Amino acid sequence: MRKIFFITFVILLVPGVFNGSLAQRSELLKITLEDLYEKNTFSQKGINAVRWMKNNKAYSALETNPETGGKDIIAYDAETGQRKVLVSAGNLVPEGKEKPLLIYDYSWSEDNNKLLIFTNTRKVWRYHTRGDYWVLDLNSRKLVQIGSSMEPARLMFAKFSPDAKKVGFVYKQNIFVQILATGEIEQLTDDGGDNIINGTFDWVYEEELSCRDGFRWSPDSEKISFWQLDTEGTGTFYLINYIDSIYPKIIPLPYPKVGTDNSSAKIGSVTLNDKNITWMDIPGDPRNHYLARMEWANSSDELIIQQLNRLQNTNKVFFSDVKTGASRVVYTEKVETWLDVYDDMTWLNSGKEFTWLSDNTGWLHLNRVSYEDGKINPITSGNFEVIKLLNVDQERGWVYYIASPDNATQRYLYRSRLNGKGGPERLSPDDEPGQHSYNISHDCKYAIHTFSNHRTPRRYEVVSLPNHKVLRVLEDNNELREKLKQYTIPEKEFLKITGDNGIEFDAWMIKPLDFDPQKKYPLVFYIYGEPAGSTVQDTWNSNLWDQLLAQEGYIVMSIDNRGTKTPRGREWRKSVYEKIGIIAPQDQAACARKIMEWDFIDPERIGIWGWSGGGSNTLNCMFRYPEIYKTGIAIAFISDQKLYDNIYQERYMNLPWNNPEGYRDGSPITHAKNLEGNLMLMFGSADDNCHYQSCQMLVNELVKQHKYFTMIDYPMRSHSINERENTTMHLRMTMLNYFKNHLPAGGK
Would you call the peptide bond into 466 cis, given omega within 30 degrees of 0 as the criterion? Predict the structure, then answer.
């Protein structure tokens, strides 16, 4: 008998896409790998690089110029939609050139009279943060390259001073300033290079603390504050390029692994008129503390700095005098597990308070913290979480934020009183279930609103606030909607599963189009399961890989276990402390055992796959629960937690000598001897995140244990395994063939 008492199905259909008889479906097209990974058939359109203008009544955006093929920068009146060309592509043609600059990104000076263009970009690890910068003066229409005498495509993080008279930037690990009126370039630091990094960060700060741009202009435009990192003493990992020359090339990467030495970090303030640097006096060993955030503290005299200890369970907020470096702690937050770092800090009451996100009540909420004494007062409260602070309307006393009190897979706009009185007020429409995001004007009167759910491609529109009145639809992706109607696309069902451990989990499921409840089908789980993300999200994804698998005859499911990044409260997220790689597979297996009881599931054809942390959890599921999972594909994984970087792993697992059992039991390599099913390992040999070393060590252990498996490595591909010709298509074809060969598709 089919047991359904422990699940709740939410079935949402796309009109004209999922409906219709089998005869009607037979006339429609099937999804192909070529559609997904060569033709980008289902890509959706967006609104490019929207920036609110200073007057709060208009916003700028990029649009293609049909004559030049370059980009125009257009201003639109938010209320009326009136269009004005602010900068045409023709204004962006450098002297002696025929084509306009290719705009990767742009920014306005505070007075909106100057434009900074980022172009000719290069990747630094995962992001395009290095390239060339140009300034256009909108009054004179003069176009000037910043650092024109320097090596091309080497400038980083260029930005206007608040008075728009200068541009600061990083070049070869030093900080420079160019005076726009004269073109004169001043070098503010001169010790950068080799192990000294000024104005940007090492690999681990960038990856795990989201620190990339490492300097800040003072409000008076007379000083620059910046990070300096010293990587000396940090372990070096070596990547090897075997394919681009007849001799291998060794690529060194300073990379602090679990339990090893960090870079030493400090923060300085340099005065432009005399180049004098004052270093902030922040107590504590700089190699065993992280300077996770730094900004000017609502004036040109002080910095506000967040310092995390190495365990990342204590965050001290310092105010530092930039003249003397003297620092005082104004607020300290300490927990038994770990603290996340948030960027949701806004100054209130003329600098007397600042906003602060904390889950000290058990739920992540917004608070006000006093500049003088660190006293904290709640702005929001209740059994729900503030997911992201969007804007503060101090004039009218409101704070705008994203939350989802009733459904962890969705996102909505709310507002609350700054004084903490009254409850949250939902502004997103009740008849649009899914995920909403907003780019709100500075005065909180307008927003660029984006909506999607798992059956609806993104829609962009201008709305007025707080009434959420739609003023104009900018892009509804109707072309994509019409295209989707030409294909047979299996529907996604959202459900809740109560595992045999009694805990309720969010999940989704996709069934084959010809699903027959009287037959038994193979099941493929897609897993991530780590604290950095979540797979069960009610939002549109143009990568229809899961639907393609279902089309081939598989039931596809994904489950968010405890510890995943969902707004279900502190206990949900932090119950995995010191148990990464332990709780996730336990929860996944608890749900899988329940699902295996369903009449239409073939318990002998259960598969699983995942990437990065999902690859690690795939291995843990395969090795620890071989009676459940018969076939698995693990991609770009960590086989031994001691091989990963220290900031991430120590945050969730404590130091290895404090939690040796957790590191041992949470590492897949410990359980490799239990492998019984079919396993494929996939890796990029130039993965700077999860190193190829993890794959090699696991292979060595599997061979030692007489375990047979399949392995494919992609030479000089990174963690995303998408570089070079045909890579993504090859990877997905390999995955599909492996499942077909080892986990036969279709109902029986």
Answer: yes
At residue 517 the predicted structure's pLDDT band, cuts being 50, 70 and 90, is: very high
Whether residue 630 contacts residue 677, with contact meaning beta carbons closer than 8 Å, is answered with yes
Same domain, 179 and 252: no
Q: Is the pLDDT of residue 13 over 80?
A: no
3-class secondary-structure state, position 550: helix
Say yes or no: 363 and 403 in one domain: yes
CATH of the domain at 521: 3.40.50.1820
Exposed / middle / buried, residue 309 (Cβ in 10 Å: 0-12, 13-18, 19+) = middle
CATH code, domain carrying 167: 2.130.10.10
Distance of alpha carbon 88 from alpha carbon 86, whole angstroms: 7
Q: Are residues 576 and 627 in the same domain?
A: yes
Residue 541 lies in a domain: yes
Cα distance between residue 432 and residue 451, in whole Å: 8
Q: Are 529 and 574 in contact (CB under 8 A)?
A: no
Helices 613-624 + 583-595 axis angle, to 10: 60
Model pLDDT, residue 514:
93
User: What does the alpha-carbon distance between residue 228 and residue 270 come to, in Å, rounded to a whole number?
Assistant: 12
Give the whole-angstrom CA distance, residue 699 versus residue 712: 11
Query: What mean pLDDT do residues 582-590 have?
Result: 98
Q: Are 424 and 498 part of one and the same domain?
A: no
Q: How many domains does the chain have?
A: 4
List of residues 6+ apart from 431 with CB closer than 8 A: none
> Is residue 107 packed enough to be buried (19+ CB in 10 Å), middle (13-18) or exposed (0-12)?
middle
Residue indicated by tokens 């995962």: 126
pTM for the full model? 0.94
Quick check: is 335 in a domain?
A: no
Indicate whether 117 and 22 sit together in one domain: no
The CATH number given to whatever domain includes residue 367 is 2.120.10.30
Residue 17 clears pLDDT 70, i.e. is over it: no
Confirm if 636 and 727 have CB atoms less than 8 A apart.
Answer: no
Structure tokens that stand for 22 in this block: 């089998």
As a whole number of angstroms, the distance between CA 185 and CA 174 comes to: 13
Could you count the other beta carbons within 10 Å of the beta carbon of residue 516? 11
pLDDT band at residue 67 under the 50/70/90 scheme: confident
pLDDT 10s digits, 32-53: 999 999 999 999 999 989 999 9
**Boundary-marking domain end, from 459, 475, 491:** 475
Please state, in angstroms and rounded to a whole number, the distance separating the CA atoms of residues 411 and 116.
33
Name the nearest CA neighbour of 240 among 690, 687, 689, 612.
687
633: which strand partners?
609, 680
pLDDT per residue as tens digits for the range 143-190: 999 999 999 999 999 999 999 999 999 999 999 999 999 999 999 999
The torsion of the CA quartet 579, 585, 587, 593, rounded to 10 degrees, works out to: -150
Task: Centre a 10 Å sphere on the Cβ of residue 451 and count the other Cβ atoms it contains.
Answer: 23
Q: Which helix (H) or strand (E) holds 247?
A: none
Per DSSP bridges, beta strands 678-684 and 710-714 are parallel
Query: Domain span at residue 91?
Result: 47-187
Is residue 37 domain-shared with residue 60, that is, in the same domain? no
Domain assignment present for 117 = yes
Q: Which of 324, 351, 386 is the last residue of a domain?
A: 324
Cβ atoms of residues 684 and 693 within 8 Å: no
Long-range pairs for 728-736: beta carbons < 8 A, 24 or more residues apart: 728/37, 729/33, 729/34, 729/37, 729/38, 731/635, 731/682, 732/33, 732/36, 732/37, 732/545, 733/33, 734/680, 734/682, 735/609, 735/633, 735/680, 735/682, 736/33, 736/548, 736/549, 736/552
Per-residue pLDDT tens over the stretch 286-342: 999 999 999 999 999 999 999 999 999 999 999 999 999 999 999 999 999 999 998
735/626 same-domain check: yes
Domain for residue 2, yes or no? no
Amino acid at 344: D
Q: Kindly state whether residues 694 and 566 are assigned to the same domain.
A: yes
